[in-house]
Amino acid sequence: MKFRFALLIAALALVLSVNALANGGEASITPAAPTETETEAGSGSTAPFAPLRVYDSRFADVKSGDWFAPAVISAYEYGLLDGRGEKTFAPAGSVTIAEMLTIAARLHAIYTTGSDDCIPAAPLGKSWYQPYVDYLQDEKLLDTSFEGFYLLPASRAQMAGIFAFALPSEWYEEPNAELVTTAYASGDFIADVTLKTPYRSEILLMYRRGLLSGTDDAGSFCPDRSVSRAEVAALLTRVVEPETRLTLTWSVAPYHSAKGATLAGLVEAPQETALPSSAKDTAAIDSLVRDMLAHGEHTITLQYSKVLTSSAATALTQAFTSCVKTYCEQMYNAVSCKSYSTGKVSLAFSSTACTDTQLETYRTKALAAAVKVHDALWESGELSYGMSQYEIAQVYYQWLCEHCRYDDGAGDDSLSHLAYGALVNGLAVCDGYTGAYNLLLKLEGIDCTALFNDSHIWTVAKLDGRTYHIDVTWGDQYGRTDLRYFGMSEEQSYQCHPWGTADKKK
Fold first, then answer.
1. Is the pLDDT of residue 362 over 60?
2. In terms of residue numbers, what domain contains 370?
3. Cα dist. 26→91, 221, 248, 359, 472 in Å?
4. Exposed site from 83, 108, 211, 405, fewest CB < 10 Å?
5. Angle at 111 between CA 86 and CA 37, to 5 degrees
6. Alpha helices in 195-243 (DSSP H)
7. Residues 360 and 346 occupy one common structural domain
8. In whole angstroms, how far apart are CA 286 and each of 279, 302, 342, 438, 501?
9. Which residues contact 98 (CB under 8 A, 6 or more apart)?
10. 55-83 as b/e, with b when 16 or more CB fall inside 10 Å?
11. Given pLDDT bands bounded at 50, 70 and 90, which one contains residue 22?
């Protein structure tokens, strides 16, 4: 495919140099006419992109030693970026979503058709960026998620989401594909990009293509941070110049170790907590429990304006007990409550299986045993980088079914109710099985909790973005692993062991 490069300057407006209109605050785009030098530089080339002008050291705020200097010069010479004035580039300046979308639309149009003639000028009274938004949406490259936010500064995650598919996949190779897959799975690289990060897939794709390397030696991406003009210059240069793309050289450990993990570290602390208005305020109760567990504590103190009634205190105790059971890997299953005339309420968390002093010992030993299982499975190759969360969860399911037996004689004071029983003694009942399983999953960073009815408890885990019910207890069929109870849908789970209507609606 041949492209008309003399049109590149006109086609790729110098979007990041736009000036605000005095009457409305919107930006106007005024592409520069190619000079004689620019036209000659691009004449007769058959590559999609070619330099169109010569940088003349015009930007006083771009020094030769700056990390971004080569990228700014390159982006300028390709006609992709101009300054925020005749002599200023403003490398630290922000870039709006609208500016990002405009560049992406023009890149795509020129690559596919040879020019951006297919993108009309904005009609009178319409935003200058609307034709570019419409073009991307017509090409199925953009949804409506940015509506209402076009003039806001773009985040680094949004930058990845916009530019990942601006050009078709055949324009790229993926020199870092295997390394990025392995490094990301290890948890030691790009760790700030999680399943909850917007545009996660697009971010990782750009690492694989050599367009990104991260902000530090661990490849951290900082997805929520505003993207700068210097960063955009660097990205655009790598997009149009394949020889400038990055070959990553990360050193990845041969297997993932869980050594150093703590029970407190397995719980994500809430950003804030609030006083529960009543026992029905489950969100506030959960936040308080998570805050307690994340700080390695076992008590919670509440301060009400007046003394609680006996029934209110009882209901509150039951609500906190139900909540802490969902974190059964922490091995608390009982709550005592003291209510004072001052309105103070003191809650202490413990286990029916042992004293408080013994419990701390059992918690420590259970975690050590879980770490040993985790590392052994990785060292043996049963777990490996690149496996899906679903596959990893199934390996642990299989392991627990093979190494634990149901304790038919367990009383209320039995250690079989704890993860310790399953992991150390090899004997457990349902809360021991579930606690041990959830502990192993959380060592892998897998989001999971427990769900229970009057007689049984099992795991609810989010694997690869989907929610599954998993019942290890029933999966252990006396030496035979029954996979029917692994990866159940909510409907399948409910048929096996119904739970409260209110819980089912959640």
1. yes
2. 356-505
3. 21, 30, 40, 63, 59
4. 405
5. 40
6. 200-208, 229-240
7. no
8. 11, 14, 24, 17, 19
9. 27, 127, 128, 129, 132, 133, 150, 151
10. eeeebebbeeeeebbebbbbbbbbbbbbb
11. very low
Residue 252 placed within a domain: no
At residue 501, the pLDDT reads 54
Asked whether the predicted pLDDT for residue 50 surpasses 60, the reply is: yes
Cα–Cα nearest to 161, from 122, 218, 212, 110: 212
pLDDT score of 187: 83
| Window from 42-56, 193-207, 450-464 with minimum mean pLDDT | 42-56
Query: Which of 213, 244, 275 is where one domain is finished?
Result: 244
CA distances from 372 to 259, 290, 365, 378 (A): 8, 25, 11, 10
Which amino acid is residue 185, in one-letter code?
A: A
Alpha helices, DSSP H, located in 215-309: 229-240, 282-294
Coil, strand or helix at 128: coil
| Centroid of chain to Cα 476 | 33
DSSP assignment of 350-364 equals: E-TTS-HHHHHHHHH
DSSP 277: S
Greatest alpha-carbon span in the chain: 91
Domain count for the chain, please give it. Answer: 3
322, 451 in Cβ contact below 8 A? no
362 in the same domain as 236: no
Closest CA to 119 of 11, 5, 7, 240: 11
**pLDDT value of residue 190:** 96
SS (H, E, C) 157-169: HHHHHHHCCCCCH
- Note whether residue 75 is domain-resident: yes
320-352 tens-digit pLDDT: 999 999 999 999 999 999 999 999 999 999 999
Structure tokens at 13: 């407006």
- In the chain, what percentage of residues exceed pLDDT 70? 90
Cα–Cα distance list, 226 to 153, 154, 155, 158, 437 (Å): 6, 6, 4, 9, 39
User: What span, in angstroms and rounded, lies between the C-alpha atoms of 506 and 497?
Assistant: 16
Long-range contacts made by residues 63-72, C-beta under 8 angstroms, separation at least 24?
Answer: 66/91, 66/230, 67/230, 68/230, 68/231, 68/233, 68/234, 70/237, 71/230, 71/233, 71/234, 71/236, 71/237, 72/230, 72/233
* Burial class, 499, CB count within 10 angstroms (exposed 0-12 / middle 13-18 / buried 19+): middle
Domain termination residue (choose one: 334, 350, 366): 350
DSSP, res 149: -
Residue 419's Cα: distance from chain center in Å?
28
For the entire predicted model, the pTM comes to 0.66
Single-letter amino acid code for the residue at 281: D
Provide mean pLDDT across the span 444-454: 95
| H helix or E strand, kind and range, residue 477 | strand 476-477
Task: At 163, list the tokens.
Answer: 């530019």
Amino acid at the residue 56:
D
